[in-house]
Design goal:
Rossmann fold, six-stranded parallel β-sheet, alpha/beta, seven-stranded parallel β-sheet, 2 domains, about 400 residues, single chain, 16 helices
Length: about 400
């Protein structure tokens, strides 16, 4: 039965015998606990997982430990899945009791990110439930993280041996966490997946020229929310250096709070004297079109897990320049340029190199990147791995 369940993971259920002659099929109930549910990589992966799961075999609900955000609203409205806000910041006791109550009937508690992992551990121990942790972070440097985040991450390392399964979103993320003490026995990699049908190669620049009435010249694209880990300061410094070498490009910035209301970002742009070539688009719904039409996708972060935006850009047939953080090098490899983090000179040089690819060289690298995504990051493949894991850990004896 175990092998059959794994082979047919899209219809994973387990039997509960209620009498000699009666066997009913019971859905596996999974309660997901996530720290935030706004616009982030882990949040996007949770949404995609829920969107593509077998709802005949699984009953799911979501608990968020902060406030309702974009993905929370999408999960409720588009997927018709209950999202409960248990705001730990307002009243920790009441929030914990609500989480405890909501998890009582769960078969599996699945958590996303450090704070939720710690809470899920406590709930799973008290309720004797199966527990799956999710790790979507790689940078634990003191200068780039809150002290509490680092403390919780390291505390979880000490508790990790009693967790039924630990999922890191990439091989480098797994390696980094095992190096600080996370148990490797039940630790595995399940990458972030995307719907590759939504991200297809297209004519370069055309969409930008049509939508923004600009001259047909190279387009640099950066997609990311306003967050210190995205290192916009280094991005602006690198583009300033690039502008000293060439003036034939535009820079488009997309993401939450990446707009004219962000005074700090505007100051960075003005200081770098990039006002004439920089467009701030804020949050957008046409990311696939922007990705496909860009000449070079740039990621300037000081910390990532396995960033969805790189997967999306590669799937779109766009060459990428990225800092060497988390699993970015694993993603981009020879299909683009990988440079040191916090090094404006290196990032500028990498962008310039990509802009100077010959047509043939660009096409070869773009094809290589897209093939990598199609082979390893399709959402259906990723969901199948999760749905294979769930019944398997339910059959395991308590540790």
């Amino acid at each position: 039965m175990h092998k059959r369940l794994q082979a047919n993971c899209a219809r994973s259920t387990y039997n509960e015998t209620t009498s000699k002659d009666e066997t009913i099929q019971k859905k596996i109930k999974i309660t997901h606990i996530i720290t935030t549910i706004g616009l982030g990589g882990a949040e996007a992966m949770l949404y995609r997982l829920l969107e593509n799961m077998d709802r005949d075999g699984y009953e799911v609900e979501v608990i968020c430990l902060t406030e309702m955000g974009t993905y929370g609203e999408l999960i409720e409205k588009q997927l018709n899945i209950k999202v409960t806000i248990c705001d730990l910041r307002s009243n920790r006791v009441n929030a914990f009791m609500n989480c405890y109550r909501l998890c009582q009937e769960s078969d599996i508690i699945q958590t996303w990110m450090y704070h939720a992992n710690l809470l899920g551990y406590i709930l799973a121990i008290l309720l004797k439930k199966k527990l799956i942790w999710g790790i979507h972070h790689s940078n634990l440097n003191k200068q780039d993280n809150k002290r509490r985040t680092i403390f919780i991450a390291k505390l979880c390392a000490k508790l990790s041996k009693r967790v039924d399964a630990i999922i890191s979103c990439g091989p480098k993320v797994k390696e980094i966490h095992e190096a600080i003490g996370y148990s490797g026995k039940q630790h595995r990699v399940i990458v972030n997946g995307i719907n590759t049908d939504q991200y297809q190669p297209s004519t370069k620049r055309q969409y930008f020229v049509e939508q923004f009435d600009i001259i047909n010249q190279p387009i640099l694209l950066h997609v990311g929310r306003w967050d210190p880990l995205k290192d916009y300061e280094n991005l602006m410094a690198s583009v300033k250096k690039l502008r000293q070498q060439r003036q034939d490009f535009y820079l488009f910035l997309v993401g939450f709070e990446i707009d004219d209301a962000n005074r700090d970002l505007l100051q960075l742009i003005e200081s770098a004297q990039l006002e004439e070539v920089t467009f701030l688009l804020g949050s957008r719904e046409d990311i696939p079109q922007l990705m496909a039409a860009a000449d070079v996708f740039v990621l300037s972060s000081v910390g990532e897990g396995l960033p969805n935006v790189l997967v999306e850009a590669l799937a779109s047939g766009t060459c990428c320049v990225t800092t060497n953080v988390g699993d970015c090098a694993y993603l981009v490899g020879n299909s683009g340029e990988v440079v040191a983090a916090k090094d404006a000179e290196a990032l500028a040089s990498g962008i310039n190199t990509a802009l100077n690819y010959s047509s043939r060289q660009y096409a070869q690298k773009a094809n290589l990147g897209r093939e990598h995504v199609l082979a390893n990051f399709q959402i259906q493949q990723v969901v199948a791995q999760y749905q294979s894991l769930y019944p398997a850990i339910l059959k395991e004896s308590p540790s």
